[in-house]
Amino acid sequence: MFDLTMCIICEGLGKAGVATETSVAGEFAAASREYAAAAGIFTFLAEDHLPKWVARGSKVGEDDLPVECCVDTAKGLSILFKANAQQMAVATVLIKPGTPNYSLLAKLCLGIQEQLDSYIVHMREKAFRQMARIEKDFFTLVTFQIQLQRSLSLYFQARHLWEQEHNYGLAIAMLSEATLELKVKDASSSTGMPDVAKIPALNALHNDLIDLRGHMNLLLKTWEKDNSSVYFEPVPQVVPADKRLEKGVHLNKEEKYRVNDVEPLLLSLSEDAMKRSDSDLARELQERLNSGLDD
Hints:
Helix content: 55-70%
Radius of gyration: 27 Å
Structural class: mainly alpha
Number of strands: 0
């Protein structure tokens, strides 16, 4: 059971690794499919295979196994990989020519944020002991992604409002809030980005984050200038609650996984072999080896 479990886990993590490499290459649709396959594998582990292992009874505790072998950790990874698959779906939309559907993108990004929030809550409530065994920078990365998706959701919603050629003031307020979500979290604030520049494992994200902030700030200044000279709409200090998206869209991309049924290979000896003694078999084996050396 352990060997089979580890084979399935390695296949799932391998799919996630391929998805990551594919996304770096810019092949986002293919990456989304690979993440969906990884999510399906860990759903299978969490809901089918690992519970059967537990039901058979084992003296091996979860603390003695790799964290991926635990039911609740596998469930968490399924949630995480579905969120990653949805991120790739967003990237697929963005690279298509023409103006994207900003309203849909806002809902998709909010859905990603909700899934990542769900992953963190699940791990804290169901797999806290296993969570403590995972590298802390990994969860810092997830926190970074949650904050990023929150900001992007507001950004895309603001773009949607502006493209509709009305609610210019509300669009500016939303974009302004999106820029605030990208600021580095300080000791006095409960929200904001982790300072990835100070984390070696996440430092590679720093320059991209600077570019994103620069883009949003430039767009905000352009909108403010246009509004002050052309539209003259009031800009609310705070985005009204009824103007915010209530719920995101969840694609729940997952490829169903199953282990093929196989006939076990029985290890048996012929009747003649069973009649011979171990010493006879040993001498016969030695003779074969000697004849091979003679050749």
